[in-house]
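> forwarded from #structure-qc
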């Protein structure tokens, strides 16, 4: 199976990873998870925000990969874009937790550009 398809699983697991970072080592209230999360501070709060952002990025990435796949963008190109997206999103989360806002925004932008590339390549706007 091509990496681009495995990247869908990776992208879906990233929010859960950041949720785990937010919850690790502290008492978690599963009866009121949103109230509990609203009281987080420091890196745990930022990990929760990274989780939220990862969920927000997921549908657009899934749609971009689907469009590229259906329009038969070459697998090598999709794999390259998927690698850029995956690396950017992992880096984004790490920088979120580390409170490196400017670098985090750059990682976010790189991930977005990978998504845009997939859409534009699928739509024939970019032809190689």
């Amino acid at each position: 199976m091509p990496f681009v398809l495995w990247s869908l699983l990776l992208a879906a697991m990233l929010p859960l990873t950041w949720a785990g970072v937010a919850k690790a080592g502290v008492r978690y209230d599963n009866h009121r998870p949103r109230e509990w999360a609203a009281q987080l501070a420091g890196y745990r709060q930022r990990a929760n925000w990274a989780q939220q952002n990862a969920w927000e990025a997921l549908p657009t990435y899934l749609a971009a990969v689907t469009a590229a796949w259906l329009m038969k963008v070459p697998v090598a190109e999709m794999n390259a874009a998927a690698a850029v997206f995956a690396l950017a999103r992992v880096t984004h989360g790490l920088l979120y937790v580390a409170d490196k806002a400017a670098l985090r925004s750059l990682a976010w932008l790189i991930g977005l550009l990978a998504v845009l590339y997939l859409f534009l390549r699928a739509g024939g706007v970019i032809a190689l």
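QC bot note: The longest helix spans residues 42-70. The chain has a mean pLDDT of 96.
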